[in-house]
Amino acid sequence: MARPVQLAPSSLALVLSRLEAPGAVGGAEEPGGRAVFRAFRRANARCFWNSRLARAASRLAFQGWLRRGVLLVHAPPASLQVLRDAWCRRALRPPRGFRIRAVGDVFPVQMNPITQSQFIPLGEVLCCAISDMNATQIVVTQESLLEHLMKHYPGHRAWHPIIQSFWMDLKEDRIFCRTLKAQRAVKHSHPIPYCN
């Protein structure tokens, strides 16, 4: 099993609330997370009288924006400590149009990667290849399919005999139709790729 991955190390969460309703500004659109982050960083980088806070603000990186106005920021540990201290002393400045309701440490979000099989089901490979070729309007023949597979799956050498054995099975199962007219005749819940 793969080792867990830390997704949000060294992060702070800032819970923000708007000073006025978004509709009160003549139907102005709700600002996105990156815009709010830039406004927060700019507001604190302007504190020339507090060089530690200004320097810490310039080292911040945008980590994310959650619904309900939660801004996630990332920085080196020393810079995060400066932000914590500024919050405790009520010196941390909010982004324009907002007020900071709370600041807190975010425990690292842990992701456990799901391992994939090293094998791809052959039917899936052939169906995806034919679908991709149809999407780019390439006529699908055994030869063009073989060329497509060799280009996109270069490690496999036995494509030719595999294609011949599966070609008829796919058509018999009516997964693929010979023409677009025949495709319309087949009752199916989703579009069926076709080949020649």
List the helices and strands and how they pair.
Layout: E1 5-6, E2 11-18, H1 33-45, H2 51-58, E3 61-66, E4 70-74, H3 77-88, E5 98-106, E6 110-111, H4 122-135, H5 142-152, H6 159-172, H7 180-185
Antiparallel strand pairs: 1-6, 2-4, 2-5, 3-4
Helix pairs in contact: 1-2, 2-3, 5-6
N-to-C CA distance? 43 Å
Structural class assignment = alpha+beta
Radius of gyration: 28 Å
Number of helices: 7
Give the percentage of residues in beta strands.
15-25%
The CATH C-level class name of the largest domain: Alpha Beta
What's the helical proportion of residues?
Answer: 25-40%
CATH architecture of the largest domain: 2-Layer Sandwich
Number of domains: 2
Chain-averaged pLDDT: 79
- Shape call: elongated
Main sheet characteristics: 4 strands, antiparallel
Q: Summarize the helix and strand pattern as letters.
A: EEHHEEHEEHHHH
Topology, number of strands: 6
CATH level 3 topology of the largest domain: Alpha-Beta Plaits
Spatial strand sequence of the major β-sheet? 3-4-2-5
Low-confidence stretches: 180-192
